[in-house]
Design goal:
This protein is an all-alpha fold and 377 residues long. Helices cover 70% and strands 0% of the residues. It has three domains: 4-104, no CATH class; 112-254, no CATH class; 283-373, NusB-like (N-utilizing Substance Protein B Homolog, Chain A), CATH 1.10.940.10. The chain is built from 15 helices and no strands. α3 runs parallel beside α10 and α14 runs antiparallel to α15 (345-362).
């Protein structure tokens, strides 16, 4: 199941990608302005080189000072051509940055929802393996065929709710039948962990679970294939595995397919997910100012980007999620920094958030209610 920490991590990854892309867009804009204001030996007098260099520097300076504004502000006298070029560069940058923010958000949400699709697809795998076993059995006439007539497989095949989800989400192994054939013949049948089932020395009651626990989620060859075909497989695997095994245990015990929920609180968790992402994008300048005010020895652009994003997510939570206790936001940020940032990041993140949480509370910028009032001292 997707918990909120995982959602925070996915928001962090999306925001990290966004901020990295924005820096690249800025650099492209700067280079474009330099090119526009560069001296062309074929058109210009070389004696004007200093003038052109000054225009280049001024254009880049104006862009850096105004790239987040709707109109250019400057105390200097600026040539109209330079102003127009910088304004055009700013508008182009803002348009591309806005597109990047929407694109990263779409991909973030898509990735999270695809975890459920992957879960449904893997729940379908035993049925595909049974079909493979039937085809092989027609040729080889094996004595023991644990997929065929397996209670779990039959329950999956007959479950209306499960088959409805397959149709609804359009998930299928149809394009990967060769892989299934290879896994069945080279991995499953030959697996030492599954030997007792194929030798008929144990009952096949737990067979499907064992296939997943001892093979599918551990086989190097299968994992390489899955990682190559799913960018986030390594981090999504524990979620898919947990949901899958939970469902299979119920099927084995009760003979009924009860599908797992993707999140504990449904749409509420995804609302939180979007709120955090949107909040960081919208209030990025304010967040930079808050962080910079408490890191006197560090300019914001010198702080590791991962730490910066973790801090911003926590601050948005504090200011826009009244039902989340302050300590929860801080502790989650610390735990994420332990896993995804540098060894010293947890102390840095904890120190900055501790000071800012007290300041934001005392100035009334943070107002908690309900469960959010717990442990905020």
């Amino acid at each position: 199941m997707l918990n909120r920490r995982i959602l925070r991590v996915k928001a962090m990854q999306a925001l990290y990608g966004y901020f990295t892309a924005v820096e690249s867009l800025k650099e492209v804009s700067r280079e474009g302005l330099k090119e526009l204001h560069a001296l062309d030996p074929a058109k210009h007098d070389f004696s004007d080189k200093a003038l052109f260099e000054a225009r280049k520097k001024l254009a880049v300076k104006l862009f850096d000072q105004n790239h987040l504004k709707s109109a250019i502000e400057s105390d200097e006298d600026v040539e109209q051509e330079v102003l127009e070029n910088v304004q055009a560069a700013i508008e182009d940058f803002q348009k591309k940055a806005s597109f990047e923010a929407k694109h990263r958000k779409t991909e973030m949400l898509k990735d999270a929802h695809q975890i459920y699709d992957t879960y449904i697809k893997f729940l379908q795998l035993p049925v595909e393996l049974e079909h493979r076993e039937k085809l092989d059995n027609e040729k080889r006439r094996k004595k023991v065929t644990p997929f065929i007539n397996n209670m779990v497989v039959e329950s999956l095949k007959s479950s209306e709710i499960f088959n409805s989800e397959i149709q609804k989400r359009q998930v299928s192994w149809a394009n990967e039948l060769d892989e299934i054939k290879t896994w069945y013949r080279n991995e499953i049948i030959s697996s030492e962990h599954l030997a007792s089932f194929y030798e008929g020395t144990v009952d096949s009651e737990n067979f499907v679970q064992e296939v997943f626990k001892k093979l599918i989620f551990k086989s190097e060859n299968i994992l390489i294939y899955l990682e190559n075909n799913n960018l986030h497989w390594s981090e999504n695997q524990p979620i898919v595995k947990s949901m899958l095994l939970k469902t299979l245990k119920v099927v084995e015990k009760e003979g009924e397919v009860v599908l797992s929920d993707l999140t504990k609180n449904g749409e509420e968790d995804f609302d939180f997910f979007e709120q955090v992402y949107n909040g960081v994008i919208k209030e990025n300048q304010l967040l930079d100012e808050l962080i910079e005010s408490k890191t006197q020895n560090w300019e914001v652009d010198r702080i590791a980007l991962t730490d910066l994003v973790i801090l911003k997510i926590a601050l948005v939570e504090m200011m826009t999620c009244p039902s989340i206790p302050m300590k929860v936001s801080i502790n989650e940020a610390i735990e994420i920094s332990k896993q995804y940032s540098t060894p010293k990041s947890k102390q840095f993140v904890n120190g900055v958030l501790d000071v800012l949480s007290n300041e934001l509370t005392s100035t009334g910028k943070v107002r908690k209610s309900g469960r959010g009032l717990i442990d905020n001292k």
